[in-house]
Each structure stands twice: as structure tokens, then as C-alpha cells.
Amino acid sequence: MRIDKFLANSGIGTRKEVKELLKKKRISVNDEVVTEAKTHIDEDNDFVAFDGKRIEFKEFLYIMLNKPQDVISATDDERHRTVLDLLEEPLTKVGLFPVGRLDKDTEGLLVLTNDGKMAHELLSPKKHVPKRYYVELKKTLSKEEAAILENGVELETFTTKPAKVEFITEDKVYIIISEGKYHQVKRMFKCVGNRVLFLKRTGMGNLGLDENLAPGEYRELTSDELEQLQGLK
């Protein structure tokens, strides 16, 4: 791999910024200063350092984010704060994007990655990946209304697939769905005469949101969590 690509993929900077670092002799390979962007390295075995500190290369990154409200699931927006605005360098420079989306006023689990193939497979409608949401409702929900939701309800353009409702209290529930249409959870509860006051995604497949992450906080997935995510493909 070319050294400039290696550095850019590692979040050290853009290709342009990386070339400047090389010119300033701040990059070394196996303790030898490298100044040419086209220099090829063995990304698995060479010791690449920036100002003497080793750079650990990862082809892809997988980040668990607890998305807060009033932040949109996008990489760039002129009017609203995006999930990428929550990240610190070098994560802002490695091409991360959200896998799927959460509504602006919805909190919870969102995975960010630069692995396009995995993201495509996770989002494929054929996979029917279950998504778990915590819901606070304006009114109490009856067992009969929950059964209606579980059997599927007719929205404006489609009928929802079977869901699962788990009661916490009469007005606080978990709902598990395998789709992700626009405002789907809110629209489903509206169909039974209720209104969602608070919505938070707590799980996707076997991957659960880390309860220690406050809204806006994030961390890399552990190897076990990554295996769980990859098992959804």
C-alpha cells in the first residue's frame, strides 16, 4: 500500500495534509524517514510512525454511537448538526458514515463505519435485522392494541411486518421491528390512537447499546460486538 493512502486511511489527515507531513519528515517506516507519498509499505508488518509514535492500521472502523436528539444521521448538512460532528479527530478523517438512520428526535444505538460492504448487507431488506426500541407513550397501551401492532398495521403506503411488544409499564414499552421506514414506530403507535413522547433504539440484532454511553458519546466496537454485527449479514 502507498504510504499516503495508509496515513489517510489511518486518520492522520487528508492526502494533501499527509503529503505536507511527509515533506516535513514527520513520518518514518522502520525508523527510516520517508518523504515520498508514492512509497509502498507492508501495512501488516512495517513499523510506521508519526512523530515517533506507531500508527496502528485498521482497514475498517466500527463505532458504536449513542445518538442524541437534535442530531441528524448524515455525514454533512448545512443547517443541522450531524453524527460526524460529534466525533473527534482522527475519526473525522477516515470516511465514516452511519449504517441506516435514526430520526432527528430519536436517541440511541447507531453504528458508524467506513465498511461499505458490511453496511450494505446490514441494511438489505432481505436480512430482516430486528431493531429494538424503548418507547414512552402519551397514553396507556392496552394488550389488545399491542396485539394489533404485533400482527402488523396498515400505514399509508405499506403494511408493517409482525412486531413484538414487551411491556415495562402501561405507557412504557419495548417494541421490536425488522423494518426501518420513515417514522415507522411513531406511525405504528398513531394507528392505535397513541403518541410517542420519547423514542430510543437500544439494540440491533444481538448488538445492544452500551448503557455506559451517554447521549453523544461513542466508542469502537469490541471484537465480540463486531462478530455479533457480522453475524447479522
Automatic annotation (TrEMBL):
EC nos: 5.4.99.-
Keywords: Isomerase, RNA-binding
Ranges where the RNA-binding S4 domain occurs: 1-63
GO MF assignments: RNA binding; rRNA pseudouridine synthase activity
Coiled coil spans: none
Protein name: Pseudouridine synthase
Superkingdom field: Bacteria
InterPro entries the record matches: PsdUridine_s_RsuA/RluB/E/F_cat, PsdUridine_synth_cat_dom_sf, PsdUridine_synth_RsuA/RluA, PsdUridine_synth_RsuA/RluB/E/F, PsdUridine_synth_RsuA/RluB_CS, RsuA_PseudoU_synthase, S4_RNA-bd, S4_RNA-bd_sf
Listed PANTHER family: PSEUDOURIDINE SYNTHASE, PSEUDOURIDINE SYNTHASE FAMILY PROTEIN-RELATED
GO cellular component: cytosol
One Gene Ontology term from the biological process aspect of the record: enzyme-directed rRNA pseudouridine synthesis
Family named by the database record: Belongs to the pseudouridine synthase RsuA family.
